[in-house]
Design a protein that fits this description.
heterodimer; A: 177 residues; mainly alpha; three-stranded antiparallel beta sheet; 7 helices; 46% helix; 10% strand; B: 363 residues; alpha+beta; Creatine Kinase, Chain A, domain 2; eight-stranded antiparallel beta sheet; two-stranded antiparallel sheet; 13 helices; globular
Chain lengths: 177, 363
């Protein structure tokens, strides 16, 4: 099913998914009962051949568009688990939690149509929160350390290194049993 | 196998005395959780799946809610055992068809169950009879926190709990209610209701989830989205949608009785007659007849106390449960004989209908 809808430009001042100019072409395509939506500006729509519906897949466009318009979609691979964008196209599921970082550009545009909002507003697991606090602290300390060494404040450097070791120890995820 | 003891022990779903709700049969909430740094089950290699399964098992069984639990591996269950668990809403069809390295842990009262290595590492579920969204959320929230004591969950401050499918991001929560809506079905209003409910961001499915039919006029209504709202907000929104469906069903019942009470009581009375006397009953016919008896109970035709027996039969008339009760393998037609005989004996001692008790259909 394919539909190009040029009607509601005024009501919805959306940005082009490819170049962020004002979008004037809005597409909805249903593939395997999944709705895909894309908004494009006039010139990107022309360039992508969107105005010619024959053999055009919105999913392809979405996947290519969101990561990098210049690069082919097969290139990006999750460093942590080896998952690729093509795998996502095939399964509709990701490979591991890190994929959400790796394919951030792919995920973010999907969320608006998928959910009530785009930012988590619910329960926070305190263990994960602790981990994040420690992580932020570690990043800052490491920055301090580099600074201290650079400006030859060796006493500060030594103190910072001790602190880093302490934080790293607390960082180890432990099973409490 | 422990399945027999599971079936024989009292459970939240089949034996709860709190099943007083006329329309909502049960409330269910599930949470999707994953371990940080581990591939999702669909992408993990077999040895990794086993490793994940073992860490989840250790963490889940350590929770106080899982004292004296049933701890099962999918690979060790027979087809029949898996079907029974599906019929009791304790595992999904997806888990029952899964490869090695998957399991389920079920609490003694069968109110809690945790599927491991289904679509996500953990699918934590709580099931309560009747309309108890808040109570269900409180208890699953505690249970989830108890499990989290031992596991490092994949979580992002912006995207929330990270799940294999982006449709579950955020809270990872799917809250649902199983609703009995015979009057909306009889008066052909269900399609309209489904459309309205969809517009409010909720989903309507059949009794056994995605793709299942709505025999017995039983529908599952749940939230569609998981990201952007807190659990409390989702539950509040779902709760008010459910409340308005209840009102619509009640209005539809009043209208049916007002328009032609005889027609409604005729359906109820015939259902009673068939259940007492038939010798061949398919699963979906049985569901529809039981549904009419349940409507009769709500209308005062049968005593209130019989409602929980019907809710139990909704489950026990399913193919897996029948097969288990009769100890053997049966063709579908043989099952229809068994089902009819089972229901005949069940209804031989059932209270006789009293059509004069409550002409206005109010409880």
């Amino acid at each position: 099913m394919f539909r190009a809808d040029f009607s509601h430009t005024m009501a919805n001042p959306l940005k082009c998914d490819l170049c962020s100019k004002p979008a004037t072409v809005h597409l909805t395509q249903i593939v395997n009962n999944k709705v895909h939506k894309v908004d494009l500006c006039e010139s990107c729509a022309q360039a992508k051949g969107v105005t010619d519906p024959s053999g055009f897949s919105l999913a392809d466009l979405l996947l290519k568009a969101s990561v990098n318009p210049e690069q082919s979609s097969a290139g990006v691979r999750c460093e942590h688990c080896g998952f690729t964008q093509n795998d996502f196209k095939k399964h509709g599921r990701f490979g591991c939690p890190v994929c959400y970082e790796t394919f951030r550009g792919l995920v973010e545009p999907m969320l608006e149509n998928m959910h009530h909002g785009t930012t988590h507003a619910g329960k926070v697991p305190h263990r994960a929160l602790e981990r994040k606090t420690l992580y932020d602290r570690l990043t800052k300390l490491e920055l301090d350390l580099t600074e201290a060494i650079k400006s030859e404040r060796y006493e500060d450097a030594a103190r910072t290194r001790d602190e880093i070791n302490q934080v790293k120890q607390a960082f180890q995820p432990k099973l409490t049993r | 196998m422990t399945i027999s003891s599971l079936i024989d022990s009292p459970s939240e779903l089949t034996d709860s005395s709190s099943s007083k709700s006329a329309i909502v049969l049960m409330t269910r909430i599930r949470l999707a959780r994953n371990l940080a740094g581990q591939s999702f089950p669909g992408w993990a290699k077999p040895p990794q799946r086993e490793e994940i399964l073992e860490s989840c098992r250790a963490a889940v069984t350590a929770a106080p809610q899982m004292k004296r639990c049933f701890n099962l591996s999918v690979g060790e269950l027979s087809e029949l055992e898996k079907q029974i668990l599906v019929e009791r809403h304790l595992i999904s069809r997806e888990l029952s068809g899964s490869k090695a390295g998957a399991g389920v842990i079920i609490s003694k009262d069968q109110a809690f169950s945790v599927m491991m290595n289904e679509e996500d590492h953990l699918r934590i579920q709580v099931l309560r009879s009747g309309f108890q969204l808040k109570k269900a959320w409180n208890s699953i929230n505690d249970f989830d926190s108890a499990i989290e004591e031992h596991l490092d969950f994949a979580f992002s401050p912006t995207l929330g709990y990270l799940t294999a499918c982006p449709t579950n991001l955020g809270t990872g929560m799917r809250a649902s209610a199983m609703m009995h809506l015979p009057a909306l079905v009889i008066s052909s209003q269900m399609e309209k209701v489904v459309r309205a409910v969809n517009q409010l961001g909720m989903v309507v499915r059949g009794l056994f989830g995605e793709g299942s039919d709505a025999s017995g006029s039983i529908f599952q209504i749940s939230n569609q989205t998981t990201l952007g709202e807190s659990e409390d907000e989702i539950i509040k929104r779902l709760g008010s949608v459910l409340q308005s469906i209840i009102e619509h069903e009640m209005n539809a019942r009043d209208k049916l009785i007002e328009a032609d009470a005889g027609k409604v009581y005729d359906k109820v009375g015939r259902a009673y007659g068939i259940l007492q006397n038939s010798h061949l009953l398919s699963s979906s016919e049985a569901m529809n007849l039981l549904s009419l008896i349940r409507l009769g109970i709500d209308l005062g035709t049968f005593p209130d106390a019989n409602r929980s027996a019907i809710d139990r039969l909704f489950i026990e008339a399913q193919p897996g449960h029948l097969q288990h009760a009769q100890k053997g393998e049966f063709e579908p037609t043989q099952r229809d004989v068994l089902r009819a005989s089972r229901l005949r004996s069940e209804f031989a001692n059932f209270a006789r209908p009293d059509f004069n008790s409550n002409p206005n259909g109010k409880n």
